[in-house]
Specification:
By secondary structure, the protein is an all-alpha fold. The chain folds into two domains: 42 residues, no CATH class; 57 residues, DNA polymerase, domain 1. Helix content is 58%, strand content 0%. The chain has six helices and no strands. The longest helix has 19 residues. The model has no long low-confidence stretch (mean pLDDT 82).
Length: 123
């Protein structure tokens, strides 16, 4: 599988490599080009797919973090006036929703996360 990740190699190029007969039989059985292509894509792009899966998990986690309704964004140091104005006007329900507001930076989301952790410790 590690060799197949290389862009210059394909499943068909393994026919000339010295590999175990069991592995060669498995490769020979792959006559359908669609199946071969799917296997190659899965192997070659595994890293990208794994990274995207991690992003989905982080996104879902941010969606589940609810923002208090009575939060005073002006009292949070580190937020720009633009961010404070947008958060105050829109009143997002979750951290995920806040992150999708135009002009809300990753740094602003980090400030919100730190504030929420402080609130949790106070409880």
């Amino acid at each position: 599988a590690d060799l197949l990740r290389r862009p210059e190699l394909s499943i068909d190029s393994f026919g000339s490599l010295p590999i175990a007969s069991l592995d060669r039989d498995a490769l020979t059985g792959l006559s359908d080009s669609t199946v071969k292509e799917e296997i190659e894509l899965q192997v070659k792009f595994k890293g990208y797919i794994d990274r995207q899966d991690e992003q989905v998990v982080r996104f879902k986690k941010m969606e589940s973090v609810l923002l208090p309704k009575n939060i005073d964004y002006r009292s949070l140091s580190g937020l720009s006036n633009e961010v404070v104005e947008k958060l105050t006007r829109i009143q997002p329900l979750s951290l995920g929703q806040a992150s999708r507001i135009s002009g809300i930076t990753p740094a602003a989301i980090s400030v919100l996360q730190v504030h929420l952790k402080k609130l949790q410790k106070q409880l």
